[in-house]
Amino acid sequence: MQQSVEREKVHFTSGGITCAAWHYRGTNGALVIMAGGFAVTKEPGTDLFARRFHEAGFGVLAFDYRRLGESGGRPRLVLPVKDQLADWQAAIDFAATLPGVDPTRIAAWGFSATGGHLFRVGARNPGLAAVIAHTPNADGLAVTRNASRHQKPLAMLRFTAKAVLDLLGGVVGRDPLLVPLTGEPGTVAALTTPDSLDTGRALNPGSRYPDWQQAVAARSALRLAFYRPGRYASRVRSPLLVLVCDQDRTALAEPAVVAARRAPRAELVRLPGGHYAPFLEAHEQAAEVELSFLRRHMLDHPTGERVTAVTPDPARR
Predict the structure, then answer these.
(1) Max intra-chain CA distance, the chain
(2) Which of 72, 101, 159, 244 is most buried, taking the most CB atoms under 10 A from its CB?
(3) Cα–Cα dist 28/104, whole Å
């Protein structure tokens, strides 16, 4: 696909494995590191927002986790949290070496499961100039309980059985058992929530990214159910923007709201809509909120004051 902005393919190493990334050169010295959501490659996961950031003068480094997309590593589509956190650390270290980048003005952006990772990434990297957790999965247990309401019992049992078999198979080196990322209730898929069915329309309209394999190892989907990264929010010392959608049935708004309230320098933005509203009907609003946050904390001289909540509402203007 022909690109509307100039970018170049770059690579960095994480855990001895080569990770592929797009580097958009900025003009203001600041750079935003980005990655897609759970099992979402860099192009469908970041292109829409990366273009907006780049047009505003920011550099961007958008990468694929290992075993995903254009990055190396096997077995494919097995995505342990610890490896993804290590990939983030490698990306941050690499970003500081890119030409024209001020190492004190590096931000991190992610949505859904990756948005959840950023609570831990931010806690480990207080030198980040800004962190944007966009519709983050802050509490896997709460998300799983909610997801069960949108799945049929037999399909849940079939998914669990497949995930357990995949876990056992991984111990003896068997190829992963894959499940679709999304599906209708009653099918064996990682997600069957109502707004998860908007994944294609939001991230892959017109099958724009045909190389994106919309599947994941069942073992990885099961492990994510017990992942609770919002507990690390209180340790994030960087300015943190938590953007939630009030009708989100995939990542859920309230666990992310709780996490934001625990972070010392958090700003909370609540938008109407489901999980993918920032990629669809609420895109302009979400992009402007995030750009404003980046400009204030990466280009201006921030005061360090805490903003507890921001709720854009055009009717109140």
Answers:
(1) 61
(2) 244
(3) 12
- Segments in the chain below pLDDT 50: 1-4, 302-317
Whole-number Å distance between alpha carbons of 133 and 239: 11
Pairing of strands 130-136, 240-245: parallel
Cα gap 156→152, rounded to integer Å: 6
Q: What is the DSSP letter of 75?
A: S
3-state secondary structure of 22: strand
What does the alpha-carbon distance between residue 81 and residue 86 come to, in Å, rounded to a whole number? 9
Domains located in the chain, CATH noted: 8-139+228-316 (3.40.50.1820)
| Predicted structure pTM score | 0.93
Q: Which residues contact 46 (CB under 8 A, 6 or more apart)?
A: 22, 34, 35, 36, 60, 62, 109
pLDDT for the residue 5? 61
Q: Both tokens of residue 231? A: 């507990």
| pLDDT per position as a tens digit, 2-12 | 344 689 999 99
Sequence-distant (6+) residues with CB within 8 A of 210 are none
